[in-house]
Amino acid sequence: MFKQFYQQRGIRRERSLSSRNASVLSLLCCLGLMFFTVGCKVGPDFCRPSVALPADWEVQPQSLSPGEQQEISCWWKQLNAPELDLMIEHVVRSNLSLKEALHRIEEARAIERATAALSRPDASATGSSLYKQFSKTGNAFIPQSSAFQLHSVGFDTSWEMDLWGKLKRLNAAAIADKNALVEAYHDLVVSLCAETAKTFVEARTLQARLAIADRNLAIQSETVKLAESKQQAGLVTYLDVAQGLSEFHTTEASIPLMRQQLQQSVLRLCVLQGYVPTLRSIEQLGGGPIPEVPLALNFGIPQDLLRRRPDIRKAEQDMIRECERIGAATADLYPQLSLTGVLSVDSRNIETLFTGESLAHSIGPSLRWNILSFGRIKNKIAAQDEKYQAAVAKYRETILLAAEEALGSMISFHEENERKIALTNATMASQQAVDLALEQYRTGLVNFQSVLETQRQLLSTEESLASSQGQVVLNLIRTYKAIGGGWQCPLEYCIGTPTEVANAPGTFSPKQIDAEGNVLR
Q1: pTM to 2 decimals?
Q2: Which 3 state secondary structure label does DSSP give 199?
Q3: How distant, in Å, are the alpha carbons of 74, 199, 483 from that of 195?
Q4: Distance between CA atoms of residues 365 and 26, nearest Å
Q5: What class has domain 38-48+79-290+306-493?
Q6: Other CB atoms within 10 Å distance of the CB of residue 252
Q7: Please, are residues 358 and 153 in contact by the beta-carbon 8 Å criterion?
Q8: pLDDT digits (tens, 9 = 90+) for 375-387
Q9: Which of 204, 200, 201, 208 is nearest to 270 (CA)?
Q10: Domain ranges (residues) in the chain
């Protein structure tokens, strides 16, 4: 009897060992398959599309010197306006749009880390304690009034094997999405620095125009007094006085409008710096002339200079993201293999829960293959392919728009410089004409209309000169913004500085995406 008992026990032990060996063997086979297929990726790899640019753009094909790099990165320092330097520092530190963009970047980083974790095993702890009462009429094979308690504590894990690179593709897409947000942050820095400088220059121009109006008011006031004295002497009629007063009050009426525009510029500067708008901030603006700029730009438009623009780099990251998602969608055409395992202790009595007899475990691979999807996967791939093609078109359009903006701003800068020189000569001539007309009016050689006309012309040319001086600076700001200047230097001011964007993949596959950006299959 004892011999038979030990023989049966040995048979059960052998069966247990054989089943355990089988599970270990299946696990080893699964791991071997994983190692053999590691690095395998389906779908196209990204290759930057080519964009034909004119050869004459390469005015400066060599790389920029450190001094030129600094000049482009911190271009506003050329304006020699300490108030503007302080404002831009406050903008980069405190602008609320930049803070929002930084939070978006941190959100994308968290999504990137979560996506990277998909390629690692997933484990969770479980525990339960239940009382089970079976139905008396529900199942003929279960005794009536059968009930029991079951206590269970354990761990379960699953590991999806990235046989076709789907998880790698999703992780690369998440990285590109994060990089695109970093470049959007850089682009926002460029825009805000340019807008701050633009608003500052507009305020300085308005201050210059107000000074011109005040100066011309003084001239016109003296002219009215001269006309009144001649009218009292009976040399002229009251018509001269009335015309002089009309010109005086017309000039006076333009001052409130310019003050209004100046106050609006001050309020805008407050918001850009993250301050509550208040008119007291005009003290921060201070007073000063319109900034002087060089008569010519000392750089051209090489192709690598256009790639400094963050919006172009963002468009490239958008292409990378959509290309990687094509590969992730393509991987759904192939079998998906996962490794699952459960280790637990189960017992009907709490006293025997953590004994060796209560141990239970299971481990093994599972396979899923979408062999009948009725074209859903292929259409999903086709839709993602179209999204990639749209990103390619957007990338090329961004480059063309950047080229248009850069060339247009440079042309405007040079032409406005020429206009400013002509207006400077016209202003000097108008001032001489006013002096001569007043002198000849005193002696009776010319009528009062000649005096009014020369003074009106002086006011017009002086205002045009001030506006042109401001416009030259504004065109310079547009030029530096167009070539992507301003996003590197102020990052040292930032409280939360985004990391540098990772470079594009070094290994491309031109056979899978041609130079026109079309996906090849």
Answers
A1: 0.79
A2: helix
A3: 14, 6, 15
A4: 7
A5: mainly alpha
A6: 15
A7: no
A8: 888 999 999 999 9
A9: 200
A10: 8-37, 38-48+79-290+306-493
